[in-house]
Amino acid sequence: MGIKGLQGFVARVCPDACRTVDLREMAEKHRINHPDLPPVIVVDAMCCVRYWYTPESWVCGGQWREYLANLEDFIKAFMAAGIQLVFYFDGVVEEKKRDEWIKRRLKNNKDIARIFHFIKTHRKQPGREMFIVPSALPTFTRFALKSLGQKTVCTLQEADFEVAAYGLQHNCIGILGQDSDYLIYNTCPYFSIEKLRLDRLVTVMYSREDLCRALGLSLTHLPLFACLLGNDVVPESLLEGFWHKCLVTSPHKNNSYNRRTNVLLAVANYISKVPCSYSSLKHLEEMLPLGSDKTLLHRGVESYLLPGQQSPWIPRNITNCRMFPLEQQTAALCQDKEIFQLAKEQHIRSENYTIFNILSNGEIECSNSLEDECDTEIPGQALIYRPARQHIYSVLLESGKGGACPLVKEWFVYFGNPLQQPELIQPVQPSILGGTPNLKTLWFAKGPDMEKQRYNTFLACFHVQDGMEELQALEAPVAAFCCLLTYLMMQVSTLSLEDLNAFVALILCLKGKSAAQLAALQLAQVDSRAVHLGAVFVRGLTTLLMANSACGFPFRMDDLMPWEVFDGKLFQEKYQQSHRGYSLEELLEGNESLYTPFQNLKSFICKACMAKKRTIQSRPRGSGFITGTQQREFNPRFQQTHRSSFVPPYHNQMRGFLWRNPQPQGKK
Fold first, then answer.
1. Hey, which family's this protein in (predicted)?
2. Cβ contacts of residue 503 below 8 Å, gap of 6+?
3. Residue 417, Cβ neighbours under 10 Å: how many?
4. Are 45 and 542 within 8 A, CB to CB?
5. Which pLDDT belongs to residue 632?
6. Judging by beta carbons within 10 Å of its beta carbon (0-12, 13-18, 19+), is residue 466 exposed, middle or buried?
7. How confident is the model at residue 601 (pLDDT cuts 50, 70, 90)?
8. Per DSSP, which regions of 164-276 are E strands?
9. Mean of the per-residue pLDDT values of the chain
C-alpha cells in the first residue's frame, strides 16, 4: 500500500526528486552501457490497470475489446522504442495486509452504493471522479497481456517486493508503477504511470538520492524512515506518540504545511541523528508502544531488503523471511509434489487462476464487484457461484476419496458479509457418472477419452454435463458462454426470459464487431439492474477460468475471455431493448441469419433449465428501471420471443451456427 502521504510530499516539498525523463533516451543510454542487455522496464501492473482502462464506459461491465486494443497500443509504444516490458501481478494477499485489504473492500462497498444511487437518480454513468475499475479487470488484464505475447508474472508474495527484486537483479532501466514503497527499496529507478505520456514516452522519475538529500538522510535510512511513518508491518496507530515527540523537537515545523508533511520532516530529522546500528533499532523498539511484539521495526526494515542486500540496522546472521514465499511458510494442502509443482509453475506464468492458492494454503479472495446492494432479487455473485466453486474445490482437493477433506477459506465481498473472518466452505462432489476423476489423471493423462472426461468434469461443475454433445458442437467461446448463462439462469430464479433474450442477442451480435464499432455505440440511458447483471456475468467468467484450471484445461484460456463473449454497452442496449418488448428482428439488428441460432441457443438453455425444474418466465420491466412493469405492444410476428414462458422447440439444431468439430478443446 506504500507510505501514506509520501508520494504527495515528494511532489510538493522535494521537487528536485521529481525529474521528467525521456524513456527512449534512457533506453538508448542503457544500450550503449550494456550492449548485451536489452532495455527492460518492470511494470507493477496492479498500479497501472486504472490508468490503462480509458474506455468512456466503465459501469456496464467493461468495454473489453476497447481495453484489449488499448493494451496493444501501450505495448507497441514501448516496442517501437526497443524497450521490453515485464508485467507483475499480485498473486496473493499476504496475511499482514489482510486488515488493510478488508478496510479497502468495505470502503469500496460504500463507493459502489453511491454509484448505484447516482445511476438510479440520473439514469447515466457518473463522472470519472467516481470511477472504479470494472469487475475482475486485473484478472483479465493478466491474461490479455499474456495473449499479446508479453512476459507476465503472477507473484508468490506481495508484488512490490518481487518487482523491486526483479528490477535490481536484471539491471532494468526502471520500475513503472504508482507506489511510494518503490522510493524505499534500494533498486532500479522508479517511474510514474500516472505521469506517463505514452505518445512521447515521457514520465516523471522519482529519485531516492534527491529525496535523501532533501531530508538529510542516506539510502540506508529509508527503510527505517518508512517504518516510523507507518507501513504494512508497523501500524500508524502505534506511532502517534513518537510523532508528537518528533514534532516537538523538530526545527523544520512549518505552519504552511499540513500535519502529515510536518510529521514526515520531523521523523526524518529524528532519524538523521540516530546512529545506523542494530542497538539503535532495539532502542527504538523499546521506546515505541509495540505491545507484545517487540520485533515489529526489525521485521519492517527487513521487509525492504532485497536478495543479497544487508542493512546496518539488522545483524547479518538473521534470515530474511521475505525470501521464503507463502507456500514454504505453511504446510500445503496438496501433498502430491508433481501436482503442486505444476500448479505453482502455471501460477507464476499466469497460466492458471486461483487454484495454486487453494492447493497451497486453502484460502482465496475476491474483491468488490459492481453489485447493487439494494436489489434483493439478485444474490451477490459470491453466493451465485459458490455451488460451482464447491465442486471445483472438490475436484482439486479430491473430496470423497477417503479421509477428511479440508474446508476452503473464502474472503469474498458481498452485501451482508462483514469480512470479520473467512467463511469456511465445504467442497462438494460434482455429479459425474462413475465419480470425479483423479486430479493426477485429469491433469496428466492423454488421449481423446481423457479430453472428453476433462470437458465433462468442467461442465459438471456448472450442472450442464447433460448438454455436453450439443455444447461441443459450438465454437468454444460460445459453448463456454452457454454453459455460464445456463448455470446463471438455474441459480437465480428471478432472471426472466427478457434477461435471457438480452444475453443471447449479445453473444450473437457481438461476433464480428470491432473495438471501434463498440466504442461508437451510444446509450441514451443506463439501467442499474443491467449494470448489476453485467458485473455478475463477468465474475462468472472468472469462475469458468477457475474450473478450467482445475479440470486440466478442456478449453483454451483465451476462449473464456470477456472480449470474446461480452461487451458492457452492447449488453445494456440488448437488455433495454428486450425489456421494452422490441421485436426479435430489432434485437438481432435486422440480421435474419441470426434468428435460427438465437432460437437454438435459447432452446438449449431453456431445456437444460426445465430438466432442473426451472421454468423461465417472462417478466418485462419496460422503461421502469428496477421496479417498472410497463409492457409495450409486441409485434405478433416475433411474439414467441416474449411469451410468458418458453417451451423450447428443440430439435438438436445447435450445429447450424458457430459450428466446430465436435471434439473437446485440446489440452492447453
1. Belongs to the constitutive coactivator of PPAR-gamma family.
2. 485, 537, 571, 574
3. 17
4. no
5. 29
6. middle
7. very high
8. 174-177, 190-192, 202-206
9. 90
Q: How far apart are CA 48 and CA 243, in angstroms?
A: 32
Asked if 664 and 451 touch (Cβ cutoff 8 Å), the reply is yes
What's the CATH fold of domain 6-303? Rossmann fold (3.40.50)
Write the single-letter amino acid at 329. Q
* Integer Cα distance of 413 and 76 in angstroms: 36
Question: Euclidean distance between the first and final Cα of the chain, in Å?
Answer: 35
pLDDT tens, position by position, 413-461? 999 999 999 999 999 999 998 889 999 999 999 999 999 999 999 999 9
- Per DSSP bridges, beta strands 408-412 and 363-366 are parallel
C-alpha 425/C-alpha 366 separation (Å) is 14
Cβ pair 85, 43 in contact under 8 A: yes
Cell matching residue 182: 518503490
Cell of 625: 428501471
102-111, long-range: CB < 8 A, 24+ apart: 102/411, 102/419, 105/367, 105/368, 105/413, 105/419, 106/419, 108/132, 108/367, 108/368, 108/413, 109/368, 109/373, 109/413, 109/415
Instruction: Dig out the grid coordinates for 16 from the structure.
Output: 528536485
* Contact by Cβ (8 Å): 110, 11: no
* E-only strand ranges, 180-249: 190-192, 202-206
Q: How confident is the model at residue 294 (pLDDT cuts 50, 70, 90)?
A: confident
Contact 159, 147 (CB under 8 A): no
pLDDT in tens, 239-249: 999 999 999 99
Q: Say what the alpha-carbon torsion angle 406, 396, 472, 149 is, to the nearest 10 degrees.
A: 130
Residue 654 in this model has a pLDDT that exceeds 80: no
Q: How far is Cα 532 from Cα 537, in angstroms, rounded to an integer?
A: 9
Domain ranges for the chain: 6-303, 337-612
552 φ/ψ sector (left φ>0, alpha ψ -120 to 50, else beta): left
Instruction: Show Cβ contacts of residue 192 under 8 Å, excluding neighbours closer than 6 positions.
Output: 176, 177, 178, 203, 204, 205, 206
Whether 232 and 100 have beta carbons less than 8 Å apart is answered as: yes
Rg (the chain; Cα; Å): 27
Q: Cα separation of 562 and 541, whole Å?
A: 7
DSSP character string of 132-183: -PPTTHHHHHHHHHHHTT-EEEE-SS-HHHHHHHHHHHTT-SEEEE--GGGG
Q: Cβ of 356: how many Cβ atoms within 10 Å?
A: 27
Q: Tell me the residue type at 448.
A: P
- Amino acid at site 180: S
Listed in sequence order, the DSSP H helices in 551-583 are 562-565, 568-579
Per-residue burial over 520-554, b if 16 or more Cβ lie within 10 Å, else e, is eeebeebbbbbbbbbbbbbbbbbbbbbbbbbbbbb
E strand or H helix that includes residue 81: none
Listed in sequence order, the residues at least 6 apart from 53 whose beta carbon sits closer than 8 Å to its beta carbon are: 67, 70, 133, 134, 137
